[in-house]
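Feature request, filed as a ticket because there's no other form

It would be nice if the structure record came with a short human-readable summary line next to the tokens. Right now we just get the raw output. Example of a typical job, pasted below so the devs can see what we mean:
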Amino acid sequence: MQKAETPYRDAYTRKELIVIPGGGQPNMQQLLQQAQKMQQDLARAQEELAQTEVEGQAGGGLVKATVTGAGELRALKIDPKAVDPEDTETLADLVIAAVQAANENAQNLQQQKLGPLAQGLGGGSGIPGLPF
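Raw output as currently delivered:
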């Protein structure tokens, strides 16, 4: 006597059922409203990031770079002590380091502002335009 296969045992034909609490259909209007609110919250947070400025520095503060939370370079301050006409390479390295530090601070700010919103939209990965 052969043993009968149980339904849905095969991995290729197995389907999972989504169970809605209360046994009803999902309220599409409510889902659309939630998605629209999340989209508005995300747009508002992105606008705040574009207006917020963060700073990075190098050489003990000899070079300071200011970027927006969106990563746009807004200002670069160089202390005259950092300027040596015989050694422009060091100055260039300090500028690069300050801009990189400012961009790291901007990315941290993006994570703080957008991270929770991105998780609500599906885990934070694969959302176009977001760096995380």
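Something like this underneath would help us a lot:
Confidence is low (pLDDT under 50) at residues 5-11, 123-127.
The domain at 54-118 is CATH 3.30.1310.10 (Ybab; Chain: A;).
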